[in-house]
């Protein structure tokens, strides 16, 4: 396989160009682009500003004083005049190094220099002018300004930490965790620039993926990218680290400018070109010899896996200068960036495959390893057609003679499918079943990512500034997952992504106190997932052409065949999604007296299109059909390959989903007033209104809801005498039909959001701040298209799993249910379990509030402490509106002393099926089975199974935290930063038990009580031009000068652990089910979880099997007390927590001066320095397991073992 694969060719494998034309509507994309071009007269959007007051020595206001703000890097100056109250504000500035001056007639000029304006900062700079001549100037080099102009709580990650801290894969977004109150739940393995980690980022309990993402102040959120999941948009563009200036995380935003989020705002800014040319060329190389081995490999004695990664690129910025043609200094500036990321791993995969003789029915040598006797014993294959009562009331089967399946019983389709398994090439391992891990194959990974960025800043005049930006990235990943070569392969073939981002800003000054700003961005992002080779002739497997003809686009893919205990054959097809987004934000800022008024409208258009949703045909099998007792498994009987070879399967489906193209509009006018009440007190007053219009599909391909009152027309086709509650009611409804609106749900028109913040400067060193704000989250519901999609389920038995339908694999889906759209009306989805979105959905409301203090102890040390609280109302939840009657279910519920067999196989549990052979039920089990479980007919809508209603809005969450942030900076050589968060998040809403209507209220599953971050960059002050040995000679400086060290440490305490709900059941005594009360007279009664207790274990067919106490059981781990019986608790979490996680990364660098500003930096970066594993598994909560109460390590680790990389940068 070539490593230098073409991403364009890879993406074109799925015909992206043609698909985009047909399904994503290039016409609409072009409309968006043209609209953006109309506004390409803009400058990057910023909320940074200087504000303050000019007074005379007596404290009286100086009106009409001239205030000049100059960017010291670009020379661009902005002037304004103070109001009658002596106040001034200069908004829409770029982050950078500034000087300010104030002058008025009769006073000497005062200047402040070396003031760093950070992203999102309102810096308060006051002037006290002395009486004198205007030609006299008093210059003061300023300290960093405290955040005295806003009540917001947040954190700025400055450029030093962005560029000098160790970042695995160079994704600056991961530094968002350095802000107190911010948690990143993404696996550390997957935090690369293209991994969309913002989907796993939560701020102040607002939930993962609910933050507003900005780049240079412009919306950087693509459309959903997956039209079926209404989560927050994906990131449109992630800049390489070398192009990032800094970014700010506003955890409690009180400005009305921000909205459509419930988790804060992240605003990343790019570098700006200056009058001096700057740039870098870099390479980071990771090789296997630098890495440690994983915990699992060390434990099993295996060598570490091979890996090679190269990340290289170049960045250049400066003035636009064409000698003798154009000199852009002080006027036109550029930024260019290119980066390439290539990860290749030759890889080796070890999987389990069947023995070749099994395909001919010969299981005579089949054995299993018995752990108790530590020996191999025969594993017997039983004939599923020989079920009989053994005389003790147990239904058993007879074995095949000689453990050989006769040739006449072998299904040819199953045999052909199984022939795609390769033969084993590894010997068996002692102590394991002989077929386990017996096949080894190369598993090469090729992952290529490229990123291009271009930006132009233009200072048109003293009244107009503009910025144009274009960002592009693409990615292609190819890898086999199941180890099977050829048509039955499964993996990334390929997985591809591509994104184009355009952004523009324009700032126009009407008067010194009235400014206009326009922001716009267009993002077009596409994703392709091809899970296996295409162009396979599925009829070659022996499946009937009538079935193949109904598979649609999946007819050229090998079906997905899952055999329990063996690697899966085949794949589930492919999918292409394209998301378009347009965001525009025109606004004005008016400085009037003590008020700075900012007003505008946030307008967005989102479009999503999806083609070829993954589905296709699948079948799954296990040993159930060939085990001795039909509803009880044991290690000595049955085999999944044998079950399948007989032409039987356990489950499967054919999923057909519609193509999608839907649009959504969002409008949000806002007004913000920053009122400087006194020189020390500023109030931030704002109000915002959100109108999130519901999505609308272009062709009305969506459901609208469920009508619970309508009499269903199917009554004319069914035997109503068999219905205990009379004619059936209820049916699905659709958008745009019978007077229903075209939107998926009704719009919420009451989303008014008041905002309030304050900042009070107690003195020059201390600021008190706080606020309260209401926001509305990005709506979650995606389109519900049950009538426009279909699922045909495999039916392998007509008697509850006792006997199979013989040779059903030959034609596993005699009738494929095709999507009917809205054409069937109330007859849609009969015999199935439809689901729908609450048609009266409300946008979840998020309230945030805080109060805190920021104090500067010394010139270089600041400490900030805040109390932060949030509340979320109308959170999403779901409920089953078609529940089995509680009284009927109680007779089957072992938690209530019932007998599960009463609802499965006991006499009388099955009754006449009123829906049998009714045409409207064709393709479902209701159509083919002459009997039905009696309890099914107790449902309010018995013609359906479960009916789930989503987005019911009865959820709620609340978050309280103490957050502390400390910062130390010394002489621009040492930066130390620390945060501590002590918090608790609670949730309520939905049901812990839908049958018995027990509401849920518990600690949030991702609640982490403690979180600590430590980061620092230290440029050792030794060497030429430094504090120590500043005059040393050049040769010595090359050895001991120019060293720097960076470190990043993140700790988070463990998440809550859920007790196994199956550990408190009932006891079987004297042929009766007895609730397991704490009664000494009942043997084996328990009150806590004990590994030695008997328990009922739910099987794959939903039956329950009593697992007795083991004779060799010892020990008592009664540390979990579950005091309540007979009902599910509303709090599913115990007081036990999973282990906490922590990570420590370091960077060691040496700088070599070459010539002038040109220097070379060599770096060694190491990640997870202590090689500490974060296990993917939680505590083992099976009371009978030998590892009960210990961490399950078999599922591997979510983080990487210690990895190191070497880097080199040329900088100037």
Automatic annotation (TrEMBL):
Domain TonB-dependent transporter Oar-like beta-barrel intervals: 270-1205
Keywords: Cell outer membrane, Membrane, Receptor, Transmembrane, Transmembrane beta strand, Transport
BP GO annotations: siderophore transmembrane transport
Transport is among the record's keywords: yes
GO molecular-function term, one example from the UniProt record: siderophore uptake transmembrane transporter activity
Any Pfam family: CarboxypepD_reg
The keyword Kinase belongs to this UniProt entry's keyword annotation: no
Subcellular location: Cell outer membrane
Bilayer disposition of the protein: Multi-pass membrane protein
Assigned GO CC terms: cell outer membrane
PANTHER family registered for this protein in UniProt: OAR PROTEIN, TONB-DEPENDENT OUTER MEMBRANE RECEPTOR
Protein's recorded name: TonB-dependent receptor plug
Species in which this protein is naturally found: Granulicella mallensis (strain ATCC BAA-1857 / DSM 23137 / MP5ACTX8)
């Amino acid at each position: 396989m070539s490593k230098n694969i073409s991403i364009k060719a890879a993406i074109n494998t799925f015909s992206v160009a043609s698909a985009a034309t047909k399904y994503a509507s290039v016409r609409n994309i072009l409309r968006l682009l043209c609209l953006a071009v109309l506004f390409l007269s803009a400058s990057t959007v910023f909320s940074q500003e200087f504000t303050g007051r000019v007074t005379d020595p007596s404290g009286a206001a100086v009106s009409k004083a001239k205030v000049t703000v100059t960017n010291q890097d670009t020379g661009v100056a902005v002037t304004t005049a103070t109001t009658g109250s002596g106040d001034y504000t200069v908004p829409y500035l770029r982050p950078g190094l500034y000087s300010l001056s104030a002058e008025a007639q009769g006073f000497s000029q005062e200047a402040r220099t070396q003031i760093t304006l950070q992203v999102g900062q309102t810096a308060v700079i006051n002037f006290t002018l002395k009486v004198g001549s205007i030609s006299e100037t008093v210059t003061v080099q300023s300290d960093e300004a405290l955040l005295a102009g806003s009540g917001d709580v947040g954190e700025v990650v400055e450029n030093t930490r962005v560029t000098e801290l160790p970042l695995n894969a160079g994704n600056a977004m991961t530094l968002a965790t350095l802000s107190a109150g911010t948690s990143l739940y993404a696996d550390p393995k997957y935090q690369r620039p293209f991994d969309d980690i913002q989907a796993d980022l939560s701020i102040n309990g607002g939930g993962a993926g609910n933050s507003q993402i900005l780049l240079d102040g412009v919306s950087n959120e693509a459309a959903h990218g997956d039209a079926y999941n209404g989560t927050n948009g994906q990131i449109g563009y992630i800049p390489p680290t070398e192009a990032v200036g800094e970014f700010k995380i506003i955890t409690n935003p009180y400005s009305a400018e921000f909205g459509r989020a419930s988790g804060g705002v992240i605003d990343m800014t790019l570098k700006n070109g200056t009058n001096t040319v700057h740039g870098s060329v870099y390479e980071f190389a990771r090789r296997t010899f630098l890495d440690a081995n994983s915990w699992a490999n060390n434990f099993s004695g295996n060598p570490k896996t091979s890996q090679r990664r190269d990340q290289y690129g170049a960045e250049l910025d400066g003035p636009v200068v064409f000698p003798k043609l154009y000199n852009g200094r002080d006027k036109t500036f550029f930024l260019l960036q290119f980066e390439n990321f290539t990860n290749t791993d030759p890889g080796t995969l070890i999987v389990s495959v069947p023995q070749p003789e099994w395909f001919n029915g010969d299981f005579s040598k089949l054995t299993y390893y018995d752990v108790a006797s530590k020996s191999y014993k025969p594993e017997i294959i039983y004939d599923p057609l020989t079920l009989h009562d053994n005389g003790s009331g147990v239904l058993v089967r007879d074995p095949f003679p000689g453990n050989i399946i006769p040739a006449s019983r072998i299904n040819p389709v199953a045999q052909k499918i199984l022939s795609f398994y390769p033969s084993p090439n590894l010997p068996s391992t002692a102590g394991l079943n002989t077929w386990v891990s017996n096949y080894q194959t190369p598993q090469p990974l090729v992952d290529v990512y490229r990123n291009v960025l271009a930006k132009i800043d233009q200072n048109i005049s003293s009244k107009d500034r503009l910025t144009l930006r274009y960002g592009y990235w693409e990615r292609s990943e190819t890898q086999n997952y199941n180890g099977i070569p050829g048509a039955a392969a499964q993996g990334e073939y390929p997985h591809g992504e591509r994104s184009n981002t355009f952004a523009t800003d324009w700032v126009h000054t009407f008067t010194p106190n009235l400014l206009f700003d326009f922001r716009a961005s267009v993002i077009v992002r596409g994703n392709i997932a091809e899970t296996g080779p295409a162009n396979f002739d599925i009829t070659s497997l022996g499946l009937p052409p009538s079935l193949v003809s109904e598979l649609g686009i999946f007819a050229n893919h090998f079906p997905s065949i899952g055999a329990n205990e063996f690697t899966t054959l085949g794949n589930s097809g492919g999918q292409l999604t394209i998301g378009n987004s347009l965001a525009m934000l025109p606004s004005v800022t008016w400085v009037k007296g003590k008020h700075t008024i900012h007003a505008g409208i946030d307008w967005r258009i989102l479009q999503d299109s999806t083609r070829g949703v993954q589905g296709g045909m699948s079948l799954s099998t296990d040993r159930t059909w060939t085990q001795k007792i039909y509803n009880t498994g044991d290690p000595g009987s049955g085999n999944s390959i044998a079950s399948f070879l007989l032409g039987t399967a356990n489950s499967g489906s054919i999923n057909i989903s519609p193509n999608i193209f839907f649009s959504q509009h969002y409008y949000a006018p806002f007004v913000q007033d920053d009122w400087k009440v006194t020189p020390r007190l500023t109030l931030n007053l704002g109000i915002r209104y959100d109108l999130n219009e519901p999505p609308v599909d272009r062709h009305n391909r969506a459901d609208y809801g469920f009508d619970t009152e309508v009499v269903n027309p199917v009554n004319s086709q069914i035997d109503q005498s068999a219905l205990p509650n009379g004619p059936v009611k209820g049916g699905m409804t659709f958008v745009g039909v019978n007077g229903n609106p075209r939107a998926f749900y009704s719009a919420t028109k009451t989303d008014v959001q008041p905002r309030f913040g304050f900042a009070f400067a107690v003195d020059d060193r201390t600021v008190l701040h706080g606020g309260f704000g209401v926001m509305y989250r990005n709506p979650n519901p995606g389109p519900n298209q049950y009538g426009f999609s279909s699922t045909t389920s495999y039916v392998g038995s007509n008697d509850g799993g006792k006997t199979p339908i013989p040779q059903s694999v030959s034609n596993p889906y005699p009738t494929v249910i095709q999507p009917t759209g809205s054409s069937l009306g109330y007859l849609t989805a009969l015999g199935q379990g439809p689901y729908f979105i609450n048609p009266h959905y409300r946008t979840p409301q998020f309230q945030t509030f805080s109060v805190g203090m920021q104090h500067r102890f010394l010139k270089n040390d600041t400490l900030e402490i805040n109390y932060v609280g949030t509340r979320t109302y109308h959170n999403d939840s779901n409920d089953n509106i078609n529940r089995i009657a509680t009284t009927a279910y109680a007779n089957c519920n072992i938690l209530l002393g019932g007998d599960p067999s009463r609802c499965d196989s006991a006499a009388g549990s099955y009754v006449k099926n009123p829906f049998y052979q009714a045409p409207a039920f064709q393709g479902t089990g209701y159509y083919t089975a002459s009997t039905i479980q009696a309890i099914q007919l107790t449902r309010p809508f018995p013609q359906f199974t479960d009916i789930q209603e989503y987005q019911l809005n009865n959820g709620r969450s609340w978050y309280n935290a103490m957050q502390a942030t400390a910062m130390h900076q010394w002489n621009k050589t040492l930066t130390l930063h620390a945060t501590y968060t002590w918090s608790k998040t609670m949730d309520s809403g939905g049901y812990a038990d839908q049958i018995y209507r027990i509401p849920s209220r518990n600690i949030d599953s991702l609640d982490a009580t403690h979180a600590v971050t430590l980061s620092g960059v230290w440029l050792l002050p030794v060497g030429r031009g430094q504090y120590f040995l500043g005059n040393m000679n050049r040769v010595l400086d090359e050895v001991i000068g120019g060293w720097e060290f960076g470190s990043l440490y993140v700790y988070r305490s463990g998440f809550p652990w859920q007790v196994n709900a199956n550990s408190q059941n009932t006891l079987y005594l004297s042929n009766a089910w007895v609730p397991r009360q704490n009664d000494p007279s009942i043997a084996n009664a328990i009150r806590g979880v004990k590994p030695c207790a008997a328990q009922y274990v739910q099987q794959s067919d939903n039956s329950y099997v009593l697992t007795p106490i083991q004779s060799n059981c010892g020990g008592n781990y009664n540390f979990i007390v579950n005091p309540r019986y007979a009902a599910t608790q509303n709090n599913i979490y115990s007081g036990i927590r999973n282990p906490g996680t922590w990570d420590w990364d370091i960077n060691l660098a040496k700088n070599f001066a070459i010539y002038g500003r040109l220097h070379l930096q060599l770096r060694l970066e190491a990640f997870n320095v202590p090689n500490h594993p974060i296990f993917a598994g939680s505590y083992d909560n099976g009371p009978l397991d030998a590892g009960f109460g210990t961490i399950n390590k078999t599922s591997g680790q979510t983080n990487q073992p210690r990895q190191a990389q070497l880097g080199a940068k040329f900088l100037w």
